[in-house]
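Bug #77: duplicate submission created two jobs. Keeping one. Sequence:
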Amino acid sequence: MTDVRRYQLIALLAAVLALTVAFVRPQETNAPTNTNTGENNNTTLNTNTVVNQNVNESPLDGLEFTVADLPDANSDLQFRMRLMASWAAELVEDGATIRFFDPRDETLTLLRVTTYPETTFVPPANMVGAATSATVDGQPAQQYTVTSATDEGQTQVVFDARRANSPSLVTRFIFDTSVSTATAMEIMSTVFLSR
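Kept job's structure:
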């Protein structure tokens, strides 16, 4: 190879590299940011809040939440999932419950996740109709429709799931009545329960 060809090849590679760097940017993330402790010693995980998003926006376009983001959580709460970018998470005082909410209305709990010790699925007392078999993270689960304790006449979706490595623990996902069944199912499709 002649010196001229070698320099032309080096110049061409440098140009390709420069164009690649100029046009291919690292993917931005909406990962959770800082953790704060509130007046009740609740740990709140703040996310990059996106204004004017609907409660039923797609979680597939949102952020990945993992319990490791809340270091004071009970060790039985082990999961990760995709959520809407506008949601935030808060560890409830008992350390065994995580509350997800929209920071624009912190009084509305969109999803509560808790774990309880049980070797079988125990349907909620306010269940409407029969339980539906489901799968969460490849493991057997149950889906329930329950009457809301706070919104009379409204129903909400509840999922019970079990990790393969903890057969004596059930993780319960309780969605608010404002979250559609389709959105709840879409979120549950992103849940990963294994440690």
